[in-house]
Write a sequence for this structure.
């Protein structure tokens, strides 16, 4: 059994209009090219076994762009399309490729985003957090365990007929199906 989990931290926040070309290039290298390189090492073994799982941790911005994350929104969409293409090409070998789309999850990155929002809006961090939570139907932030649970499922034999999809893990926040 060969399983690959691709998970790379997001590019720095900021509006897309002020993003520098190098930020896009660096993000593309970190997310798309890195995933491609890692896959090139594991896919031959997956094909030989007739079994494999590739799970990419990306973002709900694939479905609905997140304000202030211009470069990230762009690159995460590229990863989603790369993964769908990969899923289509590898399906005949019983290799699945799926994307997990975490929403607001308690991580260091989310804390730094809250700090930046707090500073730019001149509001306490707790107020920023409460405003975010108020837009999540489950009325809480996600945990790394919430995300890990779906990854474990997608990496298992139980997910053998699921491929080429994006699964939000966001407490119902994403405003699309």
């Amino acid at each position: 059994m060969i399983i690959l989990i691709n998970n790379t931290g997001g590019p720095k926040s900021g509006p897309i209009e002020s993003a520098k070309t190098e930020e896009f290039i660096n993000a593309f290298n970190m997310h798309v090219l890195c995933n491609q390189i890692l896959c090139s090492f594991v896919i031959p073994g997956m094909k030989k076994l007739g079994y494999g799982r590739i799970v990419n941790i990306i973002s709900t911005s694939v479905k609905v762009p997140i304000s202030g994350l211009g470069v990230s929104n762009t690159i995460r969409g590229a990863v989603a399309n790369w993964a769908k293409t990969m899923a289509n090409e590898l399906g005949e070998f019983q290799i699945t490729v799926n994307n997990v789309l975490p929403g607001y999850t308690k991580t260091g990155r989310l804390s730094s985003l809250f700090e930046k929002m707090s500073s730019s809006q001149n509001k306490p961090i707790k107020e920023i957090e409460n405003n975010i939570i108020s837009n999540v139907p489950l009325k809480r932030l996600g945990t790394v365990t919430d995300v890990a649970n779906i990854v474990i499922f997608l990496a298992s034999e139980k997910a053998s007929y699921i491929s080429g999809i994006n699964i939000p893990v966001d407490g119902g926040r994403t405003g699309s199906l």
Notes: The chain has one domain: 3-105+142-169. Residues 3-105+142-169 form a domain with the Rossmann fold fold (CATH 3.40.50.720). Residues 21-49 form the longest helix (29 residues).
